Each structure stands twice: as C-alpha cells, then as structure tokens.
Amino acid sequence: MHEYELLEKRWQKYRYKKLLVKGLFTTALIALASLLLTWKSVSKFEPTSPKAKVTNYLAPSLDFEKHLLAKKTAQSRPSKPSQPIKKAKKPNTSHLAISATKLTLPQMLQNYKKHPSIDLANMIANEYYQQKEYQKAMKWAIKANEFDKENEQSWILYAKSAYKLGQKQKAINALKIYLRKHPSKRVKKLLSQMMQKDSL
Amino acid sequence: MHNNENIYKAAKEIFYESSDPKDFVAIDSNIVQLESLKSSIADRFKFILLTGEPGVGKSMLLRRAHYELGNDEIMLIDHPFFSLQELQKELSQRLFGKEVDLLQTAKESQKVFTIFLDEVQLYGDELLEYLRLLSDTQRFRFVLALHTDKQSEKLQQKHFSTRTYKTLHLTPPNWQELQIYIQKKLLHASLNDIARGIDAKRTKKIHHFTKGNLRQTDKFLATLFDILDFFYTNYPSKIDTQKIPVKYIEMSAIHLGLLRA
After folding, report:
1. What is the pLDDT along chain A (200 residues), one digit of tens a residue?
2. Over the stretch B144-170, which tens digit does the pLDDT of each residue have?
3. Looking at the DSSP assignment, which residues form a beta bridge with residue B143?
4. pLDDT at residue number B142
C-alpha cells in the first residue's frame, strides 16, 4: 500500500475521533442545558416563605376551610359547568401548564414536601380534580388558598371540587365570597354555570 | 477544475525550496525591509543586521537585495564559516583573487567592500571579532542575517551594539499575506485554477499549521500537491471539487507531524 493511502487511513481515524469528540461534547452540552432547565423549572415552585401567608381580610374563606375539613366524602357528581375563567391576579398560571406536562402526581407531591408553594398546591389540586378525586382536590385547593387568600385558581378549584361532590351551595357561596372583592369574569361565568346547573 | 494534464504535479514543483532570488515573493512583511536595506546601501555603515526567526525569509531577502543591487562590490556569502582561516581564505580569494592579509590590504585599498553574510548565528566569537576588526578599517561593511533567539541577541549586544547602523526585523506573515504569497507563486506559474481554490478558509488552515513560516509553508504546499498528485493520478474520482478539499490539507499536516492523528 502506498504511503499516501496509509496516510488517508490515518486521516480517517483522526476524522472519526474528531467527530466522536464533537458528538460527545454536544451531547454533554445538551444534557447540561436540559439539566439546567429542569432545575430552573423546579425552582419556580419554591415559595418566598415556606409557611402559608395568613391574611385576615377575607374572613369567609376561613369558614369554608373549616367546613371543608370537616366534610365527609360525597359520591354524587353533578353535571359539568364550563371552562376556567380569566384570572384576577398575576400568579403564575403559566407555571401550572408547563409543569403539568413535566411532572407526575407523585413527583409533584414529592416536590411539595421539599418546596411547598402555591403553584404546586394548585397543580396537585388540579391533578386530583382531573383524576376525579374531588375530596383530595378540595383539600389541596385549601392548601393553595392558605398561601394566598386572593388566589383565584384555588377558589375555582375548591368550588368546582365541591360542586362535583354534590355540595353545590358550598361551591356557589365560595364563588360569591370571592366575587365580593374580585370582579372576575371567569368566576362569574363559573358561578352562573353552577346556578343554571350547567355541566362543569 | 482540471484539464487533462495533472496541474498538481506542476504546483508541487514551485513549492520546492528555491535559492533563486527571482523566486522572491514580495508581501507586506518583507517588501518594506527589502526597500529599507536597498536604500541603506547608499549610507555609511559598518553593520546592518537582518533578524527574524528561522524560515521567515531572511536568506531569500538577502539574495533578492543582492540580486537587485547588482553591484560587483557587493558580495553575498550564504554559507556559514566555522573557522577564521576558512573565512579569511574565502574573502581574500573572492575580493583579491589570492590569499592576502585582509586587514593590511584593506587599509591600502581605496575601495569599500560590502559583504552580505547569511547564517551568522552560527559564527563563533573569533569570527565575529574579526568582522568587527575588518569593519573598523572603514573598508569593509557587512549586512548580517541571523536568527532571533536569546543567544544571537547576546551576540549582537557583545559585538555589534555600537557599530550597528540598522536592525531590520522580519516577522512571519499573517494569513492574508500568506494567501497573497501562495497565490502569487501559483499565478506566476499560470496555475490560476489552483490559485483561485486557495481561499480564506484554506489559507487560514494552512497558516494555522505553519504559523506563517514561509519555509514551512513551502514544504507544506509541496507535500499537499504531492498528495493531490497521487490521488488525482490513482483515484481521480476522489478529487472533483472546485476547491482543494480540507481533507488533503489535514492529511498534509498529519504527514508533516503538524497534526497529531
């Protein structure tokens, strides 16, 4: 074999190694980037204060909590009201959508133990609601509400869960209480659906 | 790109090392020094130093200056001496046609001899001291080409510091100058297609491997065209692009030990 043919084989080996190194480097880079993104996504659930913020101005909501905790599981499931409603306050509904696709319920529960947050509590409530576990959904809606009494999502999830458990009046009352302070179209629409016995 | 004839064979010939001053290629980094050296010949001086790292083009510039000046009283000696006797003998023979005492004869002569000496970094202390004595007679003056390193710096300091009229320092060309250097050589040989194919990307790659060293670049390109010649002759289907494939540039670098593979 001519020396230049041997040289070509050496070059091919060199090229192969070069591509391999490039490939490994790119893979490592992608892995690092996705790790970083995952970490960022999880860190969004961290609350500013791990303990629930208590505000007294929305007194009626405390009532619904008490009633709720004492409540036994009901079996009846009324017809469904309509879609969720426009939010009244900033909090992070977008986080819910993003993380819902990424985390399973056990992962959410695990994460909540480490980093309790309103977003995560709402997500868990929503997940239970989707799985038709309305009692648990109510419990987690209350947990979310403990972080922020004005959080619309937690009120809606609570009301919808109560409605599904056959506690129509409780659901309607909760929404009315919320509407006293927050003129939310979404809540209004949900309330009207409940009152008209629409399916949720 | 190719005619029926193998143009790579012709291309490799022009990059084999040449000592012909007609093969000098003017680029930014050497043209200023060449003009400066030529214009200094009219001045009074004892020593002019031409410095630069090995392979940067000092010898070729010295030959070119000697060729362009075309003066009988300017002598070029491009090989080094390792003993004083050798130096004395050669200078005597070439200047006076016989062996004479140069110091004595020079004092009696009316002429001023200009001597271009290459590879002076190889000269010992005794030879350098002799050159200094010759220059002190006012009948000899020297243009000395030597490598730049710590040793030669010491040498310059020791023997020539007070007698050096000018130091011309040659630096390796950047990639743009190197492209001009390569293309001029190819165009001079009417290898226009290949010259066009040496674009910025390929020149940068070649510059990366040779660091702009002209001797190394010539060697690199001679190897590259030799490889291309081989593949064009034996596997013509492998070489059918308008530009030289980077693969062959890397193969040349591997062959010359400039790339680990």
Report:
1. 899 999 999 999 999 999 999 999 999 999 999 999 888 776 655 555 544 444 444 444 445 555 555 554 444 455 445 455 554 555 554 444 444 456 888 888 988 888 888 999 999 999 999 999 999 999 999 989 988 888 899 999 999 999 999 888 888 888 888 888 888 888 888 888 888 875 66
2. 999 887 666 666 667 777 788 888 999
3. B48, B116
4. 94
**What is the C-alpha separation between B144 and B116, in angstroms, rounded?**
6
Q: Indicate the fold that domain A59-195 takes in CATH.
A: 1.25.40
Whether B42 and chain A come into contact, CB under 8 Å, resolves to no
Looking at this predicted complex, what is its ipTM? Answer: 0.78
Domain enclosing residue B209, as ranges: 7-20+174-255
Which residues in chain B have Cβ-Cβ distances shorter than 8 Å to A10?
251, 254, 261
pTM above 0.80, yes or no: no
Reported for B201-205, long-range contacts at CB under 8 A and 24+ positions apart, including other chains, are B201/B246, B202/B243, B202/B244, B202/B246, B202/B249, B203/B175, B203/B176, B203/B178, B203/B179, B204/B175, B205/B246, B205/B249, B205/B250
Using the beta-carbon criterion (under 8 Å), do B261 and A2 form an inter-chain contact?
no
Q: Which of residues 84-143 of B touch A (CB under 8 A)?
A: none
For B261, name the nearest residue in chain A, comparing CA atoms only.
A14
Q: Which residues of A20-44 are buried (b: 16+ CB within 10 A; e: fewer)?
A: eeeeeeeeeeeeeeeeeeeeeebee
- Could you tell me which residues of chain A have a Cβ less than 8 Å from any Cβ in chain B? 2, 4, 7-8, 10-11, 13-15, 17
Cβ–Cβ of A13/B227 closer than 8 Å? no
Within-domain flag for B225: yes
Q: Do B251 and A8 lie within an 8 Å CB cutoff?
A: yes
- Pairs of residues, one from chain A and one from chain B, whose beta carbons lie less than 8 Å apart: 27
The minimal CB distance from B261 to the residues A2, A4, A10 is found for A10
Task: Indicate the residue of A7, A13, A17 with minimum beta-carbon distance to B255.
Answer: A7
* Same domain, residue pair B138 and B220: no
Residue B2 domain-assigned? no
